[in-house]
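pinging the channel bc i need a second pair of eyes. not urgent but kinda urgent?? the chain im working w is below, pasted from the shared doc
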Amino acid sequence: MFAGVLLFVDGVLGVLKGIAGIASNDVYTRINDYVFKFSVTSWGWIHLILGVVLILVGWGILKGAAWARGAGVVLASLNLIANFMWLPYTPVWAIVTIAIDVFVIWALCTDRSDRDDWARSG
């Protein structure tokens, strides 16, 4: 349940980041000499799409779907990488999101609940 709630919240934060980036290029400061330099609108779409998918997978985890555990680890990892690349734009927000992703990956990988419960409910 911990991982599902965190993944859902992480998705909502991603959607908010995405909407802010798409709505106005002036919301986030651009870094001039940065290797992963995309337009803020491009980053907004990336965060929006990842956020929506994270919400769906977080909901799947909360419902007990067996597919959602593996998808949650993969998507939290992708979101972690995207936020690492997003660090120069909003360092505090990116670090908070990276920490949430680390906790989600940890919670999904160390869950010792009965595997039959997951198979029956998914």
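so The two ends are 15 Å apart (CA to CA). and Residues 40-63 form the longest helix (24 residues). — does that match what u expected or am i reading it wrong
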